[in-house]
Amino acid sequence: MRILKYIVALTLVFIVACTYESKEDIASLKETDINKLNVSQFEGSRSNAPQEAILDKGLDGQVPDDGSHPAVQEAVKVQRAVVVPEEAEGKWKAVKLLVKNKKDEARNEMKTITLGSSFELEDSGIKVTVGPFLPNFVMSQTAYTSGGNELTNPAVQLVVEQNGKTLYTGWAFAKYPTMYAFEHENFALQLMDYIPIDIS
To answer: Of 43, 123, 133, 135, which sits with the fewest C-beta atoms within 10 Å of its C-beta?
Structure first.
């Protein structure tokens, strides 16, 4: 029994000795400033940075050449189709968007926009195209679609362009207005309401 206790004690001393780092060791570790990392953003990304920038590199930007790191395949940004399911197809005609003027709140405006149509943000030269509308937005590996026609997670696709250049392609969510939202120094867009097609 005494020999067993001795073996256990020796094992514990060995483990502690192997894992112990002195204060000097800890102090000498380099800190990585996360703001300097060029981390790729994929889903909902607002960044236009090259996606492959760090895929084959370590945190210090150096490619290991000693064979210790397996090669990383270049990531491919997933392209998803927009699929309006049969239950929601042709059931919605327009949405109401709150167009916020960040410089002057008195110029905020509620716009009712027919799906598939466009409008300009004041005299900025910025054009917003609206639609399609998904009453219950869901995302799969291949598509953005709606899980039925119930207003569970309403979202509308927005394409924002200026001088022929696309500034933003994404979704405005009624229940999560800041999620992947269009960002601009002067304007913000928020989905407020949705108008079904009148069935007489």
So the answer is: 123
Give the three-state DSSP class for 160. Answer: strand
- Every domain of the chain and the residues it spans: 1-77, 81-196
Do residues 158 and 130 touch, judged by C-beta distance below 8 A? yes
- The neighbour count for residue 66, using CB atoms within 10 Å, is 5
- At 176, list the tokens: 């999560």
- Which has the higher per-residue pLDDT, 70 or 52? 70
Q: Per the omega criterion (within 30 degrees of 0), is the bond before 64 cis?
A: no
- Residue 161, classified by CB atoms within 10 Å of its CB into exposed (0-12), middle (13-18) or buried (19+), is middle
**What pLDDT, in 10s, does the model give residues 144-183?**
999 999 999 999 999 999 988 999 999 999 999 988 889 8
Q: What is the pLDDT of residues 68-83, one digit of tens each?
A: 545 555 556 678 999 9
Torsion sign, CA atoms 116, 117, 121, 126: positive
